[in-house]
DNA sequence: CTGAAAGCGCTTACAG
DNA sequence: CTGAAAGCGCTTACAG
């Protein structure tokens, strides 16, 4: 049932009439080989369909040619785009990418997942937004696995960083609400407290209000979860306030979509009586109605940059830690 | 422990005062070990933080403990759910899952991706919906990699199959439109012709009309692409027909969402003047308004079943090829 | 119940 | 420009 005997490097050597040393070098290109010999070896490789055994190679080289992406939610469209960006770059380099989920609550927790991945001796790990413990990060770094963190600050731990300019993006969005549009009571619905990108985005909201000479209306700030459910709960709370908001800034699009649900259900017109904004610009942002005013989070490009950074490191770049910041872009649609 | 020397099995053996053979057997549980010895070894493993090198193990066992999922579009929510289902089962078994994209058009093509994966000696592959060549499939099977195909028929190639009851699901949906609801002119917007799951779903539509003693209104059938854009183009065509439809059945949710766009833009009330239905029940289906009436495609459950099937095979099940069919479920919301 | 040793299939110093 | 051989870190017959 299982195919014939796998062809190995000795078979190729025999077919080409050379040593396995030479076959190996033809394949890797790591030392000069005469044109004639090279041709014979390449021909044998092709004829026999030889593909080196990755376990044997990995045992020798101490490399797995595999990198990992760890995210809290594999079905979140932002993370999916991220994965697509990483894969595009990694695939071209012959690196395999494994995407692992470590939910914030429920399911295998982050330390357990990171443990699995270091056990697998991955060459590098891209760590999606997380409230990761410093100890977890140090464990990765200590294991020799290269690390790229997403959406946090370079000072927060080992490894390189790629992030969007989130504070700036949110500041511009809220500046637009508070200035041009003249909304007076602007509330905020965040995700889980302490989980990025909540802090960055809240900070942008705060700064924009401060610029406009206002303070954060504490009674209009709620922290829930980065989900549609969270948005529903948060919006319900805000609309029940003694003095309800005329605009609500949400920490991501899913929360905003939940807020839209509540507004529709209660007959609150958007944006007439309540403006609603999101963050990320996931596909659904333009599918709901009214379509969401939001900020583009360049997920795919973040993924590409992270993969390039990782590959540089694997190629021996041992320079100081780097931080790559990608620009934001506000998208005005119908909801605000 | 600055990424210095990795601890290996000899270190554990030395620390526990036993042979590496015994350490290996304590870990694998493949032969009896006295309780006292076992305790000492387990203690040493814990103290030293030992994790077996997967390359070394793989070289010996000829296993990679890794499975692959290949899909045409990694950002499609259906495929994401599929991946989540597979991973949940695989992770619990200590199997790593790699998700690879092989676009129908553009990007690395299917044979190239399958080549990469067989080179990696994956233990098993789950192949998402595809117009895969028989030769590609035979290549996988011949390499000893176990194969599960999704959404096709068992007779179409080697390996096992998992699929939803799509013809049945669509038949029930259209039966509901044509019977209970009394829609008279029911149009159909399909994706690319010849690409699954288009055929299955069209067939269900056709059967339901036949049951109701009607024929397919040829002027109300259009084939575009499985995207929101495709839905817009298709709906525009149908609404421009000499005798427009009062209901339009779409081959998936994205198409239906595009149809909703066109209806809104033209001021055609849904479902009052035009009913719209989708298929898959992706997250966005309940986010748009009116919320989509659609059919649940149990993506996550399909993933779970595929992973279980694969694991059975890896555990030595050499029985005849199996086909698992999962039931459908119509979800009635506001759009029809 | 336990251990010594072969060998999985590569890559890479070392040698010519 | 090329080859013989060591060795990467495990698992598993084989032996006691």
TrEMBL record, chains A, B:
The keyword rRNA-binding does not apply. Transmembrane segments: none annotated. Pfam families: LacI, Peripla_BP_3. SMART domains: HTH_LACI. InterPro entries: HTH_LacI (IPR000843), LacI/GalR-like_sensor (IPR046335), Lambda_DNA-bd_dom_sf (IPR010982), Peripla_BP_I (IPR028082). Residues 7-61 form the HTH lacI-type domain. One of its GO terms (molecular function) is transcription cis-regulatory region binding. Keywords: DNA-binding, Transcription, Transcription regulation. PANTHER family: LACI-RELATED TRANSCRIPTIONAL REPRESSOR, LACTOSE OPERON REPRESSOR. This is HTH lacI-type domain-containing protein.
